[in-house]
């Protein structure tokens, strides 16, 4: 029981590595968590291994995803029971992706030595199930991948080479090698473990000397505008004028200070309406007039309804100061299940009807979309959840000058 309690505590602490609380401090928490977890389950029965994995998963995802309850309850107007049920079901589902790899390893590889399990099989199976988590749950849920915990560490320099899943494997492998220090091993096995750790460290140091990006343009002035509009007011129809006027005034002030040829960026949902609807056009005309005055561009989050298909998209729009330039659009590809769309509607429709989430029946944009341009710069726009999909981001940033990610974090209130 004591070991399960320690696993739970370490599981609670590990996601803090993703927050400002310990992000820039000592980096032992993820390694300590999985090293202790691996060495604890190496001799367990498959059943107990599954329970240990479930314990770690529940702690890990409860700590890292508790804010979902806040968003559903406070802004989806769901009851405490419904909000809690959705959050618990999501946490339990995700916890299976920690419990199953170690359960299957101990079930299938009963005769394999504990040392091989800890240093090879557990790390490999955990990484494979992280990949599955990013692809199997509806449109995928690659949230809290452990590799992201190393973004600001020496191992983060490996990310451009091996990606986030490679970093996850690095964390699991180092944890396994550390765990093996408490086990019996031959002199040769000890040497292999030491050389592996030394190789990972050297590779990280060397990767840190490589320049993966380069400057190919003169600097660009960018003004980031945040209206700080309450989420409870943002999508109220009678607040549309106030919302856009708030951003207009802040933009006018920024352009007066920075001058011409500036890219202005508004966040996700800054224009909280269908941008091609008639009632929005007077606002857009006013904004375009301001852009022309300062010869600037605007990138903003909004919504767009295709007049041919009637499909609505979470959208990034690029508006230009040039008189005849048409707006360019990016339609969010990775939309959030149970937030921006409801999968399996023949089952989830009663739940969808009970919630009051604005724009919760959105469509997904294409994987590859026309290149967005700002002056001579090519832009790779992403909206919030898009950024969690590393392959999608990598594929759509090739050859681009700028990466612009817009998000609406007001859904999560004061949560971390």
Q: What topology emerges from the helices and strands here?
A:
Blueprint: H1 2-13, H2 29-41, H3 46-65, H4 67-75, H5 80-108, H6 114-136, H7 159-180, H8 187-207, E1 221-224, H9 231-234, H10 240-258, E2 262-265, H11 281-294, E3 297-305, E4 312-319, E5 328-331, H12 345-354, E6 372-374, E7 377-383, H13 390-397, E8 402-406
Parallel strand pairs: 1-2, 2-3, 7-8
Antiparallel strand pairs: 3-4, 4-5, 6-7
Helix pairs in contact: 1-2, 1-3, 2-7, 3-5, 4-5, 5-6, 6-7, 7-8, 10-11
Report on the structure:
This protein has 13 helices and eight strands. It is about 50% helix and about 10% strand. The strands form two sheets. It has a five-stranded mixed beta sheet, covered by helices on one side. A three-stranded mixed beta sheet has the order 6-7-8, covered by helices on one side. The two termini are about 30 Å apart. The model has no long low-confidence stretch (mean pLDDT about 90). It is of the alpha/beta class and about 425 residues long. Helix 4 runs antiparallel to helix 5 (about 80-110). It has helices at about 1-15, 30-40, 45-65, 65-75, 80-110, 115-135, 160-180, 185-205, 230-235, 240-260, 280-295, 345-355, 390-395, and strands spanning about 220-225, 260-265, 295-305, 310-320, 330, 370-375, 375-385, 400-405.
